[in-house]
Amino acid sequence: MNTKAIRPKADVYNDPSHNYLHYWDGRGYEHAAEEMAIKRLLDGKKFRNAVDVGGGYGRLCVLLEKYATKVTLAEPSQQQLEIAKDYLKEHPEIERKLLQADDLKFADGTIDLVTMIRVMHQLPDPAPEFQEISRVLSDDGYIVLEVANYLHARNRVKYMLHRRKLPTKPVDIGTAASKPAKEVAFVNHNPKTVIKQLAHAGLKVERILSVSNLRSPGLKKVMPRRVMLAIEGILQPTLAHSYFGPSVFFLVRKAN
Predict the structure, then answer these.
(1) Cα–Cα distance, 197 to 28 (Å, whole number)
(2) What is the CATH number of domain 3-254?
């Protein structure tokens, strides 16, 4: 894959036909599973400055307020920031900034917590973003990074049956329906490769969780959400190092 040819546009979510807030209709299990993972990784920690990179309309910013004195939504889409203005109207202290993940504008070492959730699927080559996040992160800061996982259980079975090796490079799995714009990649990553890419940026993974392990439209129709989430709570750490689920969450720090 020629990753340089399909770098994401900063304004990809400015398309009026793509409302990311509505995307989450019917995805209550996935949202709760991601919040569960963040709470698990940040348990007992407190921060001065937190930045949610590529956070869309601010879906997770309210949760981050429980862990940080100041929260900033750093989002490249003006349309998403306008939606966030209404979504976060009862949280005026959350700052909204039009920023790209590879050019965050913050001074070196001034951010104590960076979250980047549901962004990696649009980054075939995340090296510039990792370098920029490493630059702004304080020496004792943390990153919560979500990775769209190509090593999930169904893929491993499929590749095993065909006696093929799983790819180490990102795989574009996008369809016309899944992509907000045709110029943008929609990729899944090999988490083992991502760990190496983080290391190149001077970052190390301290903890791993397997997330949204029960993501299935059929299962959501027959199983109550509370039951799914109870099982999810058990599976997140148990299946972490097998990269079972469609999402992998990393807790990352500087490799000092």
Answers:
(1) 31
(2) 3.40.50.150
